[in-house]
């Protein structure tokens, strides 16, 4: 099967490409700038304008749509919503048999501007003419790692200690996506998360210990609807099929440390 992967140069895309190749897929990958590499047949596409889309979808049997522009403003709308619509229309005209879109657990529950665009993109996929699937994933381990690093730039690690997260390994998400491509269109939304739900302070203490850091945790309670949604588990899923690699596994592999509280 030949698969077109949008957003192939992003964090998940860089993990997905070798996984698909290892699983026997022929891979065409999109980038906004010319690229070369043995991991895929590269093609230039700009979702914000639609340039290159018709050529990119020609001759592929499935599309794995990873491309996204986090933010929440006009540019995000151009890429995530209108760009997804352009992709779905082009794929339909080309006779593509499966459009698999990657989204985020909580887009329907957490009042965050970027999530509104992701939810709108899901609706575009579901209302299109191409048989479809949506996989919503929880937060990737590297994303949570970067978030904690950024929150501690001024010294203490700042965050709402009761916020709930469910970090997942991007390699396991890539494997799930490969399996879904092999199985075919679901015509529904599937959620996939990590093996553990953690409070923010639990994740932060483990991260701090693995890095050998003495930075204190400065609790700041997020206000309003957003804070209530995050503390209520808006970013987590009760889906029973989960990844197996834990936050502690990620920390040990990244920093060689263990939680020494």
Automatic annotation (TrEMBL):
<protein>
    <submittedName>
        <fullName>Epimerase</fullName>
    </submittedName>
</protein>
<dbReference type="InterPro" id="IPR036291">
    <property type="entry name" value="NAD(P)-bd_dom_sf"/>
</dbReference>
<feature type="domain" description="NAD(P)-binding">
    <location>
        <begin position="7"/>
        <end position="139"/>
    </location>
</feature>
<dbReference type="Pfam" id="PF13460">
    <property type="entry name" value="NAD_binding_10"/>
</dbReference>
<dbReference type="InterPro" id="IPR016040">
    <property type="entry name" value="NAD(P)-bd_dom"/>
</dbReference>
<dbReference type="InterPro" id="IPR051207">
    <property type="entry name" value="ComplexI_NDUFA9_subunit"/>
</dbReference>
<dbReference type="GO" id="GO:0044877">
    <property type="term" value="F:protein-containing complex binding"/>
</dbReference>
